[in-house]
Amino acid sequence: MSTPEARMRLGESAQTLRGTQDPMDSTMADMLDGYSQLRASNSEKIAPTWKLTVGGKSSKELQRELSRGGFKVSPYVQDLLNSPDFITLEKPEEIELVRRSVKDLGLTGTPTTDEVYTRAQELGLELCPAEVGPHLRLTYTDQPMGEWFYIGMKQVSDRYGDPRVFSLALDGGGVWLRGSWAYPGSHWYPAYEFVFSLRKFNKT
After folding, report:
1. Is-contact 130 80, C-beta < 8 A?
2. Is residue 202 a part of any domain in this protein?
3. Which of 53, 54, 56, 181 has most Cβ atoms within 10 angstroms of its Cβ?
4. Is residue 29 part of a domain?
5. How does 17-44 read in b/e, with b if 16+ C-beta sit within 10 Å?
6. 41 and 56 co-located in one domain
7. Which domain holds residue 3?
């Protein structure tokens, strides 16, 4: 649990480390600051957050629902949904999701996909099962115009072998489920947002 006292202790530790001449200490101070800020954010303003039911539907069923709902689906999404690496849970399960920007995670510059994922996991977040992409697209029907965010998930390869993740977008062309490039070394700007799971999910 995050408390004002706990966050104060983290802040004091960061200040102590910054008082040294060791550049590694300065780096650790930045990490402590980011961790403290995310702990405060998670405990005081977890928004936007979704409770989402996944599982219980096959890839084909999800594709039919997306089509019936009038959602736009990029060609690469078909690759992801038809991939043997796209696995759905047999039974429905509710998971909690949180959306955070790269900056919210305490990262600076333009970190890589691997760095974003590692940082999220260090802070207690989990990668989503891939099926969160289509399930969230089906339920998130009030997305604001111009919004675009990515699903923090293990990448699935497209027809050319390029690793991709699902992304959700609303633009002048419609309400989209897209498949976005996400190489391990791809770089992400501070404002880019990812959705992660707040808890582990059953894999069986």
Report:
1. yes
2. no
3. 54
4. yes
5. beeeeeeeeeebbebbbbbbbbbbbbee
6. no
7. 1-45
